[in-house]
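User: I'm designing a mutation panel for Fucosyltransferase and want to avoid disrupting the core. Could you give me a predicted structure to guide residue selection? Please restate the sequence first so the numbering is unambiguous.

Assistant: Good idea. Sequence first, for numbering, then the predicted structure tokens:
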Amino acid sequence: MPVIHHVSNVTVRVFLNLCSGIGQGLCEFLRDACTILLSFTIAGETFSSLAWYIVILAGQVSSHVAAGHTREIHTDAKTRYISACMTMIRSTIRSSFGGDVADILRSMKNIMMWAAKACLYPYAFLLGIVTIVVIFQLINIIDPPYVIKSKHGVDKVDYDDNPAGPPPTCNWNVHIFDRIRTLSKGSEFTPLMSKLKMVTNHRYAMGKPMICQGAPHQIPCSIRITLSLNETDLRNKDVVVFGMSATSMRDAIGMLASKRRTDPEQLWVFMTMQSPLEMRKLVPRIGSFPTHLLWSYMTSSDVVTPYAQYVTNEPMDTDNVTYGHYVRGKRKLVAWMGDNCDEKDFWPRKAYLTELRKHIHVDLYGECTNLTCLPRNSEQCGMLMSQYKFFLAFESSECREYITESFWLTALTHQSVPIVYGSKKDSYLKLAPPMSFIHISDFESPKALADYLMSLDKNDGLYSRFFKWRHSGSIKTRYPPFKPESLCKLLPYIEDMKIRKLEKETLSETKWFKSCRNKNISSIQSLRTWTPWK
């Protein structure tokens, strides 16, 4: 703060001395503006605020001297000019914290208009251009992020204006090939969207670099993130991330068809949390897409982001919690939740559910039923599901390790025993807490499953065994949401790419693409001929 005060005082003296040679009216204007500058710095504004005012005032002084204007500026124009400058500066500061860049552009329009009326024309346009350039340079340079080192060695980033830690030793540009409108529809990308600001109508960028610490290679490193679906924005980028939304992959494959030359040192990453069958349904040619890295929920991926993890030695419940606790308050038996009435399954899921309901009561939640629970991943919805003894966590695809939040969050976290299908049973045994689920492949028919559930309903001791794992471990949710600092996981691969040039492979060659039981997405077996995947 003392430094800021000193600089501001020097600035005031310089401009007031300059005033003496160019007229009383302009001197009054500069005195007023410098007083505003001093009040802002005393209030604790950043150096960037100081820079904005210096640019504006210097531009005005030079314009008046060059034009030979020594007459008094019109009072109304002067007042409006100062007001427009202040509005622009406030908008710029807000923008640096995630506001709308459109506010700055609107303020610049007012600045140029009132500068013209205040005898600065024809220098108003030049002043506006210079100010805009300086604004965006300072937004990207002056305001570094605040870095926190995680105690577990996991990358963690904060976006405060108080820089800490050593300066970055490497700087990388990461581009997300997608539409902001598409990603904004999903709540899982909210943390990322909140950090991006509009640069043009179709291009977004993070105002400040993100610094990663805890990476196994050079540390720390800074990452600048941009997002658009424009091919030209791929230039001079170290990493391009594809696949966050399925619809963007159609444009990506179209880009390949154009045979545009790509940077041989640019790292391509395909990131998805959907099953291969769902991606193939939306993008039939997805298998032909080349990538250096696969980023998915599968443990065999280059970068792994599971929906959740079971962590031992961190119990969710203490020894004081008895097994009777898990039965208390459960007044309902079985629940199922569907996202979309017209959603296409890749196994006879709806037919199995219909047959199961012939033998046991199941409450159906979703758009195609009379029961609703929205938003699905909310705590209120979770508390409602905790009133059920069982939850049908049936995935839409029969794919290995495809175990989504319906299993982890909706069921396990809220103390409802999940009845599962989608992955083979060995995937659940590998990833889920021990003795925490019921897999339908263990039963010859939906009726046999219904009989078993009703027997558990009558025996509290047997039912409570499904919660024994809570005394030795816990569930850690990983996705959603997608956090910007997740991109720090790419740092080791960026450096490898610069050193030894990683080879691309098409998605059809990956374990993710080959992980599903049914390779034909156009037809589904009938329940009569279908048998569970064991």
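For picking mutation sites, this is relevant: The chain has a mean pLDDT of 76. Residues 308-477 form a domain with the Rossmann fold fold (CATH 3.40.50.11660).
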